[in-house]
């Protein structure tokens, strides 16, 4: 009688995201990374896992107790806003950002506030000594006896601290500095990061305490280490900010317990980091509004309306190729608006140097700021200020038409709250009710917007 044997087939796995393939390829088919697919050894053609005894009986979803998974506020309102209201027991949060952006400072602030709320906090640092962390905590006012500090780089030692302390909240700064003696490779490598993340996540899920992991980002802006870490954690937050600006933005890229449309605003100071509930003062200049080349708009970042002030300077050029310099706004968008102004409105800017910037380190990326950008450029070229108290909202098409944008009503309401008396919006789209004390102007073309908002001297 003939017997059938199972043949083993060589398998290949991506070290970044865990994608598998039957044969070697140069580029991963899941995360599109190059050179990350390596041989994973022989794999059986059939399933290797058999049924075992279930750890608990399945029950109706309505009988599951949800009180143990209620959120607990961290005390940092902007952080809670991004998380969806607070930390869920057993949740794992990955806080990613460039070195020096303020991740450790934010973590210390959250840990100190949790300790003051009678919660046991274990702060594990692998990048600095305990003395260095203590000095930073003293500088920002984050000293509390309920916060326990451990300087460790060995995974086994970290797990031992967890067993000994039994924390209500665990902070790890950072995951790239922790290594396991049972795994080959240096700290921060693919295999080490995967092992450390898996062990810590298992400990958090088993004991039911929330954990925040700090992760660095690469030059491309992605989280360093394997992409599988992002799949394992519950929440991925990106901490952003320019090196020479005090403004910091916290965005939620992934959130299993809430929305990913929220943005938290922080201000990094010498005394620590502070949440900014109303960031309008950071994005709007306080000097006179009667300066040519300045126009305000209201952008929406996630679900949050944020003001932005665009400043432009147009000067005669002595070069055959005039300069085009931008800061905080896409240069290709500026080039398109300049072309539309030249061709559709008759504002001659082809032979001039053009400089465009935003206030307070804000980054304007959405097309809803097109009209404000065009008005700032036209105002700078004509050398006449935009009408005082006016904010402009709308997208500019290549034909010169002003196209509708989303959330116009929310933007107009925010402009009224900030004290603007006139708002320019697209004529097409959903009609907007003007708030008290605000006059809403509707325009169909960029030429009409320039004639209305920038009266010639």
Number of domains: 3
Q: Please bin the fraction of helical residues.
A: 25-40%
User: In angstroms, what is the radius of gyration?
Assistant: 27 Å
CATH topology tier name of the largest domain: Rossmann fold
Q: State the fourth-level CATH superfamily of the largest domain.
A: P-loop containing nucleotide triphosphate hydrolases
Give the rounded overall mean pLDDT: 86
Low-confidence stretches: 1-8
Write the CATH architecture name of the largest domain: 3-Layer(aba) Sandwich
Number of helices: 11
Number of strands: 21
- What's the arrangement of strands in the largest beta sheet? 6-5-7-8-4-9-10-11-12
> How far is the N terminus from the C terminus?
102 Å
- Strand percentage lies at 25-35%
SS content category: alpha/beta
Mass-distribution shape: elongated
Q: What is the makeup of the main sheet?
A: 9 strands, mixed
| CATH C-level of the largest domain | Alpha Beta
Region (Lon-protease-like): 353-457
GO molecular function: ATP binding; ATP-dependent DNA damage sensor activity; ATP-dependent peptidase activity; damaged DNA binding; serine-type endopeptidase activity; zinc ion binding
Organism: Demequina activiva
Binding site for ATP: 97-104
């Amino acid at each position: 009688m003939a017997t059938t044997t199972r043949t083993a087939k060589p398998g290949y796995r991506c070290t970044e995201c865990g994608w598998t393939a039957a044969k070697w390829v140069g580029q991963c088919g899941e995360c599109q990374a190059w050179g990350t697919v390596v041989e994973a050894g022989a794999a059986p053609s059939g399933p290797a896992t058999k049924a075992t005894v279930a750890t608990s009986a399945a029950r109706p979803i309505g009988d599951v107790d949800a009180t143990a998974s209620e959120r607990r506020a961290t005390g940092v309102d902007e952080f809670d806003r991004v998380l969806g209201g607070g930390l869920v027991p057993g949740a794992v949060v990955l806080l990613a950002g460039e070195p020096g952006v303020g991740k450790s400072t934010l973590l210390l602030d959250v840990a100190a506030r949790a300790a003051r709320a009678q919660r046991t906090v274990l702060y594990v640092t692998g990048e600095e000594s305990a003395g260095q962390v203590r000095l930073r905590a003293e500088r920002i006012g984050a000293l509390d006896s309920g916060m326990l500090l451990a300087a460790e780089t060995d995974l086994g030692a970290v797990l031992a601290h967890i067993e000994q302390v039994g924390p209500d909240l665990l902070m790890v700064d950072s995951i790239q500095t922790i290594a396991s003696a049972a795994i080959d490779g240096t700290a921060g490598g693919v295999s080490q990061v995967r092992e450390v993340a898996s062990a810590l996540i298992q400990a958090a899920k088993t004991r039911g305490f929330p954990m925040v992991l700090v992760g660095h980002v690469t030059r491309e802006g992605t989280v360093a280490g394997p992409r599988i870490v992002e799949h394992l954690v519950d929440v991925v937050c990106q901490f952003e900010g320019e090196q020479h600006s005090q403004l910091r933005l916290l965005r939620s890229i992934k959130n299993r317990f809430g929305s990913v449309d929220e943005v938290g605003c922080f201000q990094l100071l010498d005394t620590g980091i502070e949440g900014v509930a109303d960031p309008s003062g950071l994005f709007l200049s306080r000097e006179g509004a009667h300066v040519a080349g300045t126009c305000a708009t209201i952008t929406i970042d996630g679900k949050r309306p944020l003001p932005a002030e665009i400043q432009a300077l147009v000067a005669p050029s002595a070069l055959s190729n005039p300069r085009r310099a931008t800061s905080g706004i896409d240069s290709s968008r500026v080039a398109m608006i300049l072309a539309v102004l030249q061709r559709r409105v008759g504002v001659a800017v082809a032979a001039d140097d053009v400089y465009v910037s935003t206030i307070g380190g804000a980054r304007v990326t959405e097309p809803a700021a097109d009209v404000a950008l065009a008005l700032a450029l036209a105002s700078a070229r004509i050398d006449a200020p935009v009408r005082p108290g006016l904010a402009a909202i709308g997208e500019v098409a290549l034909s010169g038409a002003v196209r509708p944008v989303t959330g116009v009503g929310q933007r107009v309401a925010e402009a009224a709250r900030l004290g603007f008396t006139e708002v320019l919006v697209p004529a097409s789209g959903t009609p907007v009710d003007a708030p008290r004390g605000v006059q809403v102007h509707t325009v169909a073309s960029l030429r009409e917007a320039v004639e209305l908002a920038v009266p010639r001297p």
